[in-house]
Design a protein that fits this description.
The complex is a heterodimer of chains A (110) and B (111). In chain A, 0% of the residues lie in helices and 55% in strands. Chain A is built from no helices and eleven strands. In chain A, strands 2, 4, 5, 6, 9, 10 and 11 form a seven-stranded mixed β-sheet that branches. The radius of gyration of chain A is 13 Å and the shape is globular. The model of chain A has no long low-confidence stretch (mean pLDDT 93). In chain B, strands 2, 4, 5, 9, 10 and 11 form a six-stranded mixed β-sheet that branches. In chain B, strands 1-3-8-7-6 form a five-stranded antiparallel β-sheet, with no helix packed on it. Chain B is globular. Classes of the chains: A mainly beta (110), B mainly beta (111). The A-B interface holds A 31, 33, 35, 40-45, 48, 50, 58, 90, 92, 94, 97-104, 106 and B 4, 9, 31, 33, 40-43, 45, 48, 50, 88, 90, 92, 97-104.
């Protein structure tokens, strides 16, 4: 089935650790995105990529990094510089006027 | 900077009643999206509104767009418990490929 797969579903990070969230799509979409969701805040854009080997910062990119080496994959690394990483992370891809979302990764700092 | 405001943020209603959720945005845009989110789940696309005066309906939900007023509404008719969820509107500036979301409206439909 075509879709967007995020993994893992739950992730725990220790203080000072970098962790990487996976996002894979088999929809052949050029554009991919990472959003962060906090309670009562809606979704905020972290990074987006319109094409392979190119990406731009969104509204809250500090403490995060991404890569886009393949069309299908857009991994997000939460670095130790991100001081408050506990949140729900959603990956999306888009074509035309529609955006499709993955099932999300819930990251918790322990 | 594009801002998207939804109201109300919390809505508790009885089954069978009607209500409207409002979504205002600050910059000219031709693309307005409505999503539904159940607790702990991803976003489900409900409507994409692409032009002034666009109206779309699916079951008990109807969405409309007034680009001149920079306003979209999501109208709920004869609410049922299954509609309980958080509803988000989002705006996309054409060619930008970035969605800016409102904070969401948590809808609770009580028997």
């Amino acid at each position: 089935d075509g879709g967007i797969t995020q993994s893992p579903k739950y992730l725990f990070r220790k203080e000072g650790q970098n962790v990487t969230l996976s996002c894979e799509q088999n929809l052949n979409h050029d554009a991919m995105y990472w959003y962060r969701q906090d309670p009562g805040q809606g979704l905020r854009l972290i990074y987006y990529s319109q094409i392979v080997n190119d990406f731009q910062k969104g509204d809250i990119a500090e403490g995060y990094s991404v890569s886009r080496e393949k069309k299908e994959s857009f991994p997000l690394t939460v670095t130790s510089a991100q001081k408050n990483p506990t949140a729900f992370y959603l990956c999306a891809s888009s074509v035309g006027t529609e955006a499709f979302f993955g099932q999300g990764t819930r990251l918790t700092v322990v | 900077e594009l801002k998207v405001e939804q109201n109300p943020l919390f809505l508790s209603m009885q089954e069978g009643k009607n209500y409207t959720i409002y979504c205002n945005y600050s910059t000219t845009s031709d693309r307005l999206y409505w999503y539904r989110q159940d607790p702990g789940k991803s976003l489900e696309s409900l409507f994409v509104l692409l032009s002034n005066g666009a109206v779309k309906q699916e079951g008990r939900l109807m969405a409309s767009l007034d680009t001149k007023a920079r306003l979209s509404t999501l109208h709920i008719t004869a609410a049922v418990h299954d509609l309980s969820a958080t509803y988000f509107c989002a705006v996309d500036i054409v060619g930008n490929y970035k969605l800016t979301f409102g904070k969401g409206t948590l809808l609770t439909v009580n028997p």
